[in-house]
Amino acid sequence: MAQTKKLGVGIIGFGTVGSGVARILLERGDRLAEKTGLRVELRAVCDSDLRRKRPVSLPPGLLSSEIETVLENPAVDVVAELVGGLEPAGSLIVRAFRNGKSVVTANKALLAERGDRLFAAAREHGVRFGFEAAVGGAIPIIRALRESFVSNRVTSLYGILNGTTNFILTRMEEECLSLEGALKIAQANGFAERDPSLDLSGQDASHKLSVLASLVTGRFCPASAIPTEGIAGLALEDIRYAAELGYRVKLLSHLKYDDGHLRLATCPTLIPARHLLAAVRDVYNAVFLTGDLMGESLLLGKGAGMDPTATSVVGDIVSLGREILHGVPAAPLPEGAATLETRGLESRYYFRFTALDQPGVMARIAELLGRHEISISTCLQKEENPAEAVPVIILTHRTRETQVRKALSEIDRLPVIKARTVMMRLAFDN
């Protein structure tokens, strides 16, 4: 039987995920050694708060508030950065690299904003950098892109990448709740932060899309360059109308990569109810991608929480440990900057106009849409109260986004239109 090799690990950040990683390493070390041939040993844990109660007890002397116990510790081979945020996390990772230590992180915001600098620093110092836990919790999408699907050219990727918003949208649809009501339930169950703005704005999902796009293209794609719309303004009536038309609304992150042209977006999107992604409920995440050789593939799993995220962190630690101890070359990291295509984006669209119920209104709307080369596929009018403005729902055929925005700008200025038009894209329905 081959001799088990040892790998020393240091954790920076002993919060929810850090506690989960420590517990796995301490309680399942024998299992890891049996399955991997690698004895992963927790050598140091650093956190600024030494008094807070955690769900795991550490051996005496392992926890310290001194960062040197991890970064300057010769017994630590791999550092798990689980602090979160841009700083001091970014500086700590670079410092670990300089000291010859490989790093794993779950910090998608840092990767999305400063990934280019971190990738360059890892290359400069000849160390490894793992970030499986940054996207999708327990879904191994990073490893799939870096290893399993490496022979494929990924041409499209659609992701439900934020469990909080997916839970909210599920509650809105299934229980006919307002966004505010569904958010309160999410917060009561620990699925949403006290300040949910990062989730509701779509920024969290775009951070994750940034990481995936960087791997697909091999070039850094900053989240700041991704067109992003969240669900904060989404109304229950739009979810109802979508369902009536055979669709479900999801906060969808979308990548298209064809002939060097890269298109990225995160926005509320109508998905046909028959599609696999439409069935992804509650806090689950999913990634649906297409490769030129493998065709379509779906990865599904819980996207957040202590155990799913800690599982991915430990998986990264083991993967990097094997590479280090067996002298396997590190996987290439994205290099350079990607160029995003912003012109000529095409899609089908959902519009909800709020219009006075008067003769000629529909004809006027149709005329302006036609003037901008937008063809109507489906029209649904709800006569809730003929004396007031009523909702008019239109689905279009495929059209360019630039034309859509020009048309809606003109339509919303009509005296018979009493509210700003709601617009959402359609996916998987050509």
TrEMBL record:
Residue numbers annotated as active site: 208
Keyword Amino-acid biosynthesis: yes
Functional pathway: Amino-acid biosynthesis; L-methionine biosynthesis via de novo pathway; L-homoserine from L-aspartate: step 3/3; Amino-acid biosynthesis; L-threonine biosynthesis; L-threonine from L-aspartate: step 3/5
Domain ACT: 350-424
Binding site for NADPH: 108
CDD domains: ACT_HSDH-Hom (cd04881)
Swiss-Prot/TrEMBL catalytic activity: L-homoserine + NADP(+) = L-aspartate 4-semialdehyde + NADPH + H(+)
Pfam families: ACT (PF01842), Homoserine_dh (PF00742), NAD_binding_3 (PF03447)
Keyword NADP: yes
Protein name: Homoserine dehydrogenase
Protein source organism: candidate division TA06 bacterium ADurb.Bin417
